[in-house]
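Query structure, 264 tokens:
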């Protein structure tokens, strides 16, 4: 990752004003947490060429081979309540969708709450974590992994994971995507800080939502049920209509969702 190639493209006010690029990290999220503890400013970005302990949601690992992809964490210090932190993940998903889209190519879609999908396979995952001081949010870190130029995937991921290069048929410039993401994320974040709701992004999010109007399987601890996804609320819950007609709002912390016929 070439710093100058990011910096020369970056048109943000504060996000990415400090960028640390590591050859190797256990996990950029862990590094960002450490930096937060040492008093780093909001907007710090940590990037790694590879991760030895890359982390995904629900305790899963995030495979992070060297040199081909983006592994990045942004440090934020929001002054809103901790309950709002999960909404930042949906904003990050929109920012990532804007950052990776390419004219004439297939548009990425979002699998609620925050996976980016192209052609039914995942190209990007987001892991948001939070540090608290008493009842207040001390920091939020948004970790994002984007499969850029990887073309060889381990057997167990082959039918679920893909990369921009595989889907677009050409190499992509990682630095350009990083700069675009930071620009989009900064502007969405600033809007969210003013409004404290996702209403302003609901339409865009729902247009990108791969689950929209589709049957989904909701996996709650101890029970599974199916229904039809019908958008998101202004606080980021997925709206699911049960076959009985009952409307449920599900939050990402408690449940996960998959397609009835497979991953999406
Ligand atoms: C998921 O879909 O399960 C979330 C994956 C998040 C991966 C990114 S890569 C950069 C950052 N550092 C990590 O250890 N995880 C996130």
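Result returned for the query:
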């Amino acid at each position: 990752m070439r710093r100058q190639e990011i910096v020369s493209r970056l048109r943000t006010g504060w996000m990415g004003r400090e960028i640390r690029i590591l050859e190797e990290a256990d996990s950029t999220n862990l590094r960002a947490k450490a930096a937060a503890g040492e008093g780093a400013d909001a907007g710090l970005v940590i990037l790694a060429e590879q991760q030895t302990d890359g982390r995904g949601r629900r305790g899963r690992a995030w495979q992070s081979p060297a040199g081909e992809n983006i592994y990045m964490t942004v440090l934020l210090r929001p002054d809103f309540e901790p309950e709002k932190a999960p909404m930042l993940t949906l904003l990050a998903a929109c920012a990532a969708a804007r950052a990776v889209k390419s004219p004439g190519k297939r548009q990425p879609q979002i699998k609620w709450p925050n996976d980016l999908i192209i052609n039914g396979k995942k190209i990007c995952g987001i892991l948001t974590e939070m540090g608290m001081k008493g009842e207040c949010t001390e920091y939020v870190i948004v970790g994002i992994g984007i499969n850029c130029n990887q073309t060889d995937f381990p057997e167990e991921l082959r039918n679920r994971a893909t990369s921009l290069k595989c889907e677009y048929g050409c190499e992509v410039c990682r630095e350009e995507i990083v700069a675009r993401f930071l620009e989009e994320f900064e502007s969405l974040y600033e809007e969210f800080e003013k409004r404290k709701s996702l209403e302003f992004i609901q339409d865009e999010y729902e247009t990108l939502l791969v689950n929209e109007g589709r049957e989904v399987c909701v996996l709650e601890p101890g029970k599974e049920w199916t229904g039809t996804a019908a958008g998101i609320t202004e606080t980021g819950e997925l709206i699911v209509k049960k076959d009985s007609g009952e409307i449920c709002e599900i939050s990402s912390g408690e449940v996960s969702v998959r397609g009835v016929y497979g991953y999406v």
